Amino acid sequence: MPTVSVGRDRLFEALRRTYTQEEFEDLCFQFGIELDDVTTEKAIIRKEKHLEEEEPSDDEEVIYKIEVPANRYDLLCLEGLSQSLRIFAGLEPIPTYTVANISKESMLKMHVKPETSQIRPYVVCAVLRGVTFNEARYNSFIDLQDRLHQNICRRRTLVAIGTHDLDTIEGPFTYEALAPKDINFTPLKQTRNFSADELMEFYKKDLKLKKFLHIIEGSPVYPVIYDQKRTVLSLPPIINGAHSAITLKTKNVFIECTATDLTKANIVLNTMVTMFSMYCERKFEVEPVEVSYTDGRSYVSPDLSFYQMEVPVSYITKLIGVSLPAHESARLLNKMQLHAKHSISDKNEASFTISVPPTRSDILHPCDVAEDVAIAYGYNEIPKITFPSVKPQLLNKFSDLIREEIATVGYTEVLTWILCSSKEISTMLNREEDKTAVINGNPRSADFEVVRTTLMPGILKTVGHNKDHPKPIKIFEVGDVVLLDEKKDVGASNRRKLAALHCGSTSGFELIHGLVDRIMEVLGTPFVSPGDKTGYYIESSNEPEYLKGRQAHIIFKGEKIGTFGIVHPQVLHNFDIPDPCSFVEIDIEKFL
Amino acid sequence: MAEEAVLGHLEHNQEISDSGVFSQEKGIDHDELVNIIKSLNGFGLVIAADIKREKWLLSDEAQSYVKYGSAEVLLFEAVPAEGTAKAKLQEIVKSKLPADLDDTTKSLIYDKGWAQAMKNKWVGLADSQVSRKVEHVEDRVKDLLIQIQNGEAVGAKDIDALKRRRLISLQIWKGYSVKKGPNYAPKRKKAATDLVRDHLQRDEWKDIEFKEYNFLAKGQPTEGGCLHPLYKVKQQIQMIFLQMGFEEMPTNNYVESSFWNFDALFQPQQHPARDSHDTFFLKVPSTTNSLPEEYVERVKTVHESGGYGSRGYGYDWKREEANKNLLRTHTTAVSTRMLYALAQGPFTPKRYYSIDRVFRNEAVDRTHLAEFHQIEGLICDRGLSLGHLRGVLEDFFSRIGMSKLKFKPAYNPYTEPSMEIFSYHEGLKKWVEIGNSGMFRPEMLRPMGLPEDVQVIAWGLSLERPTMILYGIDNIRDLFGHKVDLSLTKRNPICRLGLN
After folding, report:
1. What interface predicted TM-score (ipTM) does this complex get?
2. Where is the B5 domain (chain A) (predicted)?
3. Whole-prediction pTM value?
4. Is B431 part of a structural domain of the chain?
5. Residue B1 domain flag
6. Residues forming beta bridges with residue A476, ordered by sequence position
7. Chain B residues 216-255 with a CB less than 8 Å from chain A
8. According to DSSP H, which parts of B290-349 are helical?
9. pLDDT of A59
């Protein structure tokens, strides 16, 4: 996106008020431009020269660097930018640009020679009469040309602009294409005469101009514009002649745009003249030039006519998704510099006749008109319309992610029964009767007496029935247990647990400990010192189902969330397991 | 034996005051004793306290001096009273040295002896003749070394001189004093670090004592593979799209023609994005073999002179430009193919998404790579509006944890209206741009053959940007590419996007 640097104070003066930076940023955001950087002239120079950062002094002019959309050429200078913002703010009506009404005979003329078709076939011209320049306006005039050259002109390949002091030259003008050696003139900023081929060599050392030489280099003919007295106005797209250079004192400006793309030449010319006609004696009036070709084609430039477009009112409101009365849409369009005339068609359909000014070449289709209404209405004011969609069950999706991680480090998932016998959750685990368990009233067998309060018996039974499986056995389960819970209407609630077991010729206690670390790591939980509540730590424990000295609690954010240890040999014996096992069980709901 | 000695001694005595002395008394190697003390200390049977002593240690050279005399004395004694030629001296000296020394040692003694005897002015050299300069000499160096070996005190000056001759060096001796510990027993139980099968089989587990376990350290790291953080995020975002009713587009085609990448999207041929500065154009295969000709004609017309209510760009559209092959700069090229295919049958509404690689000819820096992943979603249906676009964006972005959004008008050649998406970053306390969105232009959709009342709302963002925000990464090269630290990938936690 192109960036435009403008003096903040000049900008605020043009906007007839001052803004805080935040207020200005908000305005930019609404309008679709962006305050990219705030700097000063001196800071820019310092940066270019790679000088040390100094404290900026208060008297330095603050420069706003503003990013503008790539298709809004009318925003590439302070004049156009401030005018658009004034109109957006409702401070000013849309200007009416006019072409001075002069007879064909007294109109300035530009004759195009057929040879130009070999290299750069098109030219359009215009005159700004009675311009009052001052330093700021003059600089802006030059900068706009640079920015247009850089953007729409595609580094002068498509269009090149030449501006001249009309009082130093005399029409009619001719646009020709001649052999380089036959073109001779003193170029801008030089004091002697060069032939065009000599000049091309000369500019190979010029940092700014050398990148444009390729556009015509190697062509048998170079484009050139002469006045009646054979004064060279310019050698497009490289350089203008020194003779017709504009100065602060220039009153009448002749503008020529040579091009390989006529549409863009017209856009560029229109941008130049509409922006700077505000400094003309007759504000917003531009003097035309007749361009004629040897084959008889001719046209008058600039073409400042409004582009007319029929847009149904409903098209706009449907596209935005807001029902706006026609007069409101029209008011919003005016803020964006578009005239809108409301009419009812034969089919009783309300529609707008939109008049697009020559400054708004970006408006190609009614959808562009609709966008302008949406911008003026405010993108962030448009009510949201939602589509039906579904959301995942957090606990289950989360469990799935953890299951994948545990399988990834080599543990095989088991899926065991929720129901078990009451001794499996008590005496077989060296525990007293479990008072937190839900008890089945009519179990068909002892295997279904209670609802599990821990995943341990299911996993130990799996090991006991897989004695022949090669060691080590590494298994895990993520599943629910049920505990009595007075807070629940039914008096019991599920808890999501994770359990894992290692069984081999050694218990693998350090491996289960390592698995605990890994689980915490994938949950993004840091390992902290005992007492620290920002992560997890391990604290030696004394639970009957584990071996003394080889068991610990896992403390997360100060709360016990699980235990791991070497399964007590008595418990192993109870479950008919001949090999040592380490086991961990964690409540994972704490991590939601 | 050492363990029994220590535990046995402590059964009747308060302490072992010095392990060095104890080792000599009991005739146990001190290193062995230290190992036992450390082990007993670890199990709490004893409490050991460090003892440190400094001791001068004789070098091999010095030990030979103690045995045979210092080099300078040996040399002095070898010089005949009448003197000798310097050239013969080495031979004479070597012949007088003890026969059990090898030749290298003899040479060394000669060299050192010569230098030191000259320094002491015991011998002199004149006209290549060596002669004695004193009557007789005393072997003080040997005496000093013997004193040091016996642990007797020696003056600082002498120590210094011997040290400079590298005959002695300082050694720090470490030992322990030992007392009964809290778990003291005259004989310790079987010690183990883990419960093993044998303990169970022989029913020994009741008698084993476990070495204390350090819960302040981490356990043994797990082994296994890990998925890439970026693809973990991708997987979650795919889940989000599926929950929102979007189907995935096939994106396994990196090579694309300019036509599908740009022209079909109503992107003019002079657009800066089509510069070689931004796009990788291909040398091989340089051009596309075929394009759908009727559609190409309609695209050409809409660029040149418009249609469908548009005035077009008003330039000469060139087929050669459209034919140029490139590496796709956005997955929207795929969306375009999908919409074109959709338009070839009776209209059915669609919701499409894709997450895949795109390429830009950009300089690589902290925030830019020449390739990255684009996330794209689109809805194609009748009667869609900006309100729908806002709605779907709010839904999508809130699922990836960005619930505070605002929209800025923007320019994009193939969307109109266009909205840049900004999200409020709680950490940075500012609005950050996270993506682009809009409604595809009629100039793009109508030439495909889609009905006039069909709109497409679409949005796109990079996969890398939200991931970098999510994990607080500020250099894109730390996230994606061959410079990524593998341990970061291993440490990366599960991705909880879409679970809020």
Report:
1. 0.89
2. 304-384
3. 0.80
4. yes
5. no
6. A413, A500
7. 216, 218-227, 239, 243-245
8. 293-304, 319-323, 332-343
9. 67
Beta-carbon separation of A319 and B408 below 8 A: no
Do B153 and B276 have their domain in common?
no
Q: Which residue does chain B place closest to A401, by CA atoms?
A: B494
Q: Do the domain assignments include residue B9? A: no
**Nearest-CA residue of chain B relative to A518?**
B222
B257 and B156 housed in the same domain? no
Q: Please answer yes or no on whether A579 and B220 come within 8 Å at the CB atom.
A: no
Choose the final residue of a domain: B119, B139, B164. Answer: B164
- Cα distance from A406 to chain B (closest Cα, Å)? 9
What does DSSP assign to residue B249? P
Q: Does B427 touch chain A (CB under 8 A)?
A: no
On the CB side of B301, how many CA atoms lie within 13 Å of its CA? 12
Q: How far apart are CA A480 and CA A458, in angstroms?
A: 12
pLDDT of residue B381: 97
Distance, in Å, from the CA atom of A559 to the CA atom of A587, rounded to the nearest integer, reads 11
Q: Which residues between 287 and 346 in chain A have a beta carbon less than 8 angstroms from any beta carbon of chain B? A: 307, 309, 318-322
**Contact call for residues B177 and B48 (beta carbons, < 8 A):** yes
CATH number of the CATH domain containing B346: 3.30.930.10
B385 closest CA partner among A379, A337, A388, A29? A379
Q: Which of A:184-243 have CB within 8 Å of B? A: none
**Binary contact (B196, A384; C-beta < 8 A):** no
- By Cβ distance, the residue of A69, A507, A569 closest to B410 is A69
Q: Which residue of chain B comes nearest to A410, CA vs CA?
A: B224
Query: CB pairs below 8 Å between A and B: how many?
Result: 237
CA distances from B103 to B88, B106, B315 (A): 16, 5, 99
pLDDT at B106: 84
Residues with Cβ within 8 Å of residue B229, at least 6 apart in sequence: B467, B471, B479, B488, B489, B492, B495
The verdict on B403 touching A (C-beta cutoff 8 Å) is no
Are both B160 and B237 inside the same structural domain?
no
* B421 shares a domain with B317: yes
**CB B95: neighbour CB atoms within 10 A?**
10
- Nearest Cβ partner for B222 among A322, A368, A514: A514
In angstroms, the CA B276 to CA B281 distance is: 7
A444-453, B203-212, B277-286: range with lowest mean pLDDT: B203-212
Note whether B154 and B273 are same-domain residues: no
- Encode pLDDT of A519-556 as tens digits: 999 999 999 999 999 999 999 999 999 999 899 999 99
Token pair recorded at residue B250: 């096939």
In this structure, the strands spanning A546-556 and B84-85 are unpaired
Beta bridge pairs of residue A7: A63
pLDDT in tens, A294-328: 999 999 999 999 999 999 999 999 999 999 999 99
Number of domains chain B is built from? 2
> Which residues in chain B are closer than 8 Å to A511, comparing Cβ atoms?
219-220, 222
Q: Cβ A512–B215 below 8 Å, yes or no?
A: no
Distance of alpha carbon B216 from alpha carbon A83, whole angstroms:
69
Contact: A386, B395; criterion CB under 8 Å: yes
Residue B344 lies in a domain: yes
User: How far B343 CA lies from chain A's nearest CA (Å)?
Assistant: 20
Query: Are B407 and B258 contained in the same domain?
Result: yes
Domain of residue B64, residue span = 60-164
Instruction: Identify the residue among A28, A316, A317, A382 best suited for mutation to test binding to B, counting B beta carbons within 10 A and taking the highest.
Output: A382
CA nearest to A474, candidates A381, A379, A407: A407
Cα nearest neighbour of B272 on chain A: A154
Is there a single domain that holds both residue B158 and residue B245? Answer: no
Examine the fold and report which residue of B135, B164, B193 is the final residue of a domain before the chain moves on.
B164
| B315, B387, B455 member nearest A382 (Cβ) | B387
